[in-house]
From TrEMBL:
Record InterPro entries: DUF6526 (IPR045385)
UniProt keyword Transmembrane present: yes
Organism of derivation: Pedobacter soli
Domain of life: Bacteria
Protein name according to UniProt: Uncharacterized protein
Transmembrane portions of the chain: 12-33, 39-59
């Protein structure tokens, strides 16, 4: 299926719909058990579920940061190839990530517009006429 503004957000079901909900439910249940039966073991179970939840969220954040860095490098290179100069430093990471969906024919003009008008990432995505899908990012 071709990507566009309406369907470009992606979920990874094992993570978003299985791991995170189970960690949150386990943490909530552990707190309930700890409140009902106070003991060191139940306190340790609460701590374990808390740590599992934190690790799951941090793992997701670290993966997104790595993807952001790769996408920024790709867009800097693409801009350099198309324009022969460095990508403007005024662009935020969110703007750069939104610009990756623009086709080459409108990329340079959209970069200039994003810098001049301080377009939000959402405004940039809505302004794209020839969507270039990113099928690798989750």
């Amino acid at each position: 299926m071709a990507q566009n503004y309406e369907n470009h957000k992606r979920f990874y079901p094992p993570f978003h719909f299985f791991a995170i909900p189970l960690a949150v439910l386990g943490f909530g249940f552990a707190i309930y058990v700890c409140a009902t039966f106070t003991s060191i073991i139940t306190g340790l179970i609460v701590l374990a579920f808390f740590l599992i939840s934190i690790i799951a969220v941090m793992a997701r954040m670290f993966a997104l940061k790595a993807q952001d860095r790769a996408a920024r490098a790709e867009e800097k290179l693409r801009y350099y190839i198309l324009a022969g100069k460095a990508l403007p430093g005024e662009l935020s990471m969110g703007q750069i990530l939104a610009l990756r969906f623009a086709g080459d024919e409108e990329f340079l003009a959209l970069v200039d517009r994003a810098v001049a008008d301080q377009l939000s990432p959402n405004e940039i995505k809505k302004a794209i006429r020839h969507w270039r899908g990113d099928y690798n990012r989750i």
